[in-house]
From TrEMBL:
Record's protein name: CbbQ/NirQ/NorQ/GpvN family protein
Entry-linked Pfam families: AAA_5 (PF07728), CbbQ_C (PF08406)
Lineage: Bacteria, Pseudomonadati, Pseudomonadota, Gammaproteobacteria, Oceanospirillales
Organism: Halomonas koreensis
Keyword hit for RNA-binding: no
Annotated signal peptide: none
Superkingdom of origin organism: Bacteria
Length: 269
């Protein structure tokens, strides 16, 4: 679990994010109206970067939690721990965000255990309450608290999905990979590689993403394109960089890897 509040008293540097619609405006409105926000979209399309960008833009602390199969409600709210020979209550990231104000971001929330949704429900309606059964407290979220969650609908199955009763508690926003011209500029900006060379990578990504649902579980992410461009900018041969970033991370199947390599050779020769 990664928790990363911005350091208090320091002017935050706003992470680079290239908007493709009105997502920034919707986020700001949700924050001002004290509404929880749900982000949906494929892996590596910019959801986490977007949240970091908006938290810095609004000047609010950000508590980021990477959800996983073993994440429980207690990991979010807190627990009693033995410290210096004494048992003391230690707030979890969600409780800290509610007490102090800020944005709590639960990445891939469907991966967490089912008891997490029970904790989130009273925070996602007009009550905006966080009950702490262990301490007997009932915390009311301040005006500058915001709950943001994300997940990848492409990985959903019957055991890993958000119930309608949970989904309908959020304002929702769909993310996808940026349009080619925008993605080219993002990859160039993040890697330092010339835009015309990044354009070839973006064209290749379109071919690889077309394989999703056939040979690949997930299409190549913008993040992986940035990694590839960064290696190329650092002097690595294109085909070697592409294999390390656009083949090996996407599949372990030899036949699928061969298909990916054919697409790469067709693009770069």
């Amino acid at each position: 679990m990664a928790v990363s509040p911005m350091a208090a008293g320091h002017e935050p540097q706003i992470p680079f994010y290239r908007s493709v619609g009105n997502e920034c405006g919707l986020f700001e409105q949700a924050f001002r109206q004290r509404l929880p926000l749900l982000l949906k979209g494929p892996t590596g399309c910019g959801k986490t970067r977007f949240v970091h960008h908006m938290a810095a833009k609004l000047g609010k602390p950000l508590y980021t939690v990477a959800c996983h199969d073993d994440l429980t409600a207690a990991d979010l709210t807190g627990r009693y721990l033995l410290q210096g020979g004494e048992t003391r209550w230690v707030d979890g990231p969600l409780t800290r965000a509610v007490r102090e104000g800020g944005i709590c971001y639960l990445d891939e929330v469907v991966e967490a255990r089912k008891d997490v949704s029970v904790v989130l429900h009273p925070l996602t309606d007009d009550r905006r309450l966080l009950p702490l059964e262990r301490t007997g407290e009932l915390l009311e979220a301040p005006d500058d608290f915001m709950l943001v969650v994300s997940y990848n609908p492409g990985y959903q199955h019957i055991l890993k999905s958000l119930k309608p009763s949970t989904r309908q508690r959020f304002v929702a926003m769909a993310f996808d990979f940026p349009p080619p011209a925008v993605e080219r500029d993002i990859v160039a900006r993040e890697s330092g590689l010339a835009a015309e060379r990044c354009a070839a990578l973006v064209n290749l990504a379109a071919s690889l993403r077309a394989m999703k649902g056939q040979d690949l579980e997930e299409g190549v992410s913008t993040r992986l394109l940035v990694y590839c461009a960064t290696l190329i900018q650092g002097g690595m041969p294109i085909l070697e960089a592409a294999r390390a970033t656009l083949v090996e991370p996407l599949s372990d199947d030899a036949d699928v890897q061969e298909g990916l390599l054919e697409a790469i050779h067709a693009t770069f020769g």
